Hints:
This protein has 2 domains: 2-110 and 226-254, Rossmann fold (3-Layer(aba) Sandwich), CATH 3.40.50; 116-223, Dihydrodipicolinate Reductase, domain 2 (2-Layer Sandwich). By secondary structure, it is α/β, with parallel strands linked by helices.
Amino acid sequence: MIKVAVAGCAGRMGSAVVDAVTAADDMEVACGIDPHGADAGFPVHATVAEAVAAGGFDVLVDFTQPDVVAANLAAALPAGVDCVVGTTGLSNEVLEGLAAQAAPGTCLFYAPNFTTGAVLMMEFAKAAAPYFPEAEVIEFHHCNKKDAPSGTAVRTAQMIAEARAPRVSEAPGRETEIAGAEGARGALVDGVPVHAVRSMGYVASQEVIFGSLGQTLTLRHDSWDRSSYMPGVLLGIRSVGAREGLVVGLEQFMA
Length: 255
């Protein structure tokens, strides 16, 4: 039985993780971490450091906030707790630095997206990138998302850039933005324009638009409910115990 601690257990994603872990036959919620949480049939600690001191769990799942996730991992990894992280906003450099602090045999698993459809979309984008000179990413999220662009969009752009190197886009960029409308061409992530839309009505959606002479190819993934993330989260929980160091992307466990 895998003992799981859920950081951000009182939030919307954290609550969904608690329900998914509780329903699984091979794992259970050992405790929650949330400064605003109340006892819900398991102990709830105010901080990860407090939970680590109490002990009793194998894996920490973190769906918190970009401004607290690094400190959470810094408390768990040196103690030998495997971590499954869905909180975005961490750079590769920060992730590598945190993984370097981990106790031997400990895994830091970070997924920009836990839905299998989004992972496949990124893989399809990687496959298409060498054949199209132009590519842009447009992501749509709910209005309460704390970071922009999304971790999925950043990872998609990075994968496109790696797959099409050394090709560089010929499309007009920031130099064409008119005065007072700076940002119209989006943020450049490794040379790929990325646009972030925030509005009520969305959970998480993303389009990748490829263009070449006389044709376009559009890849789109839509997530309408947080339950779509849970199979990926459970796969991460089940898989981290057999890995060590930094692992990025759910596709690493889907093979």
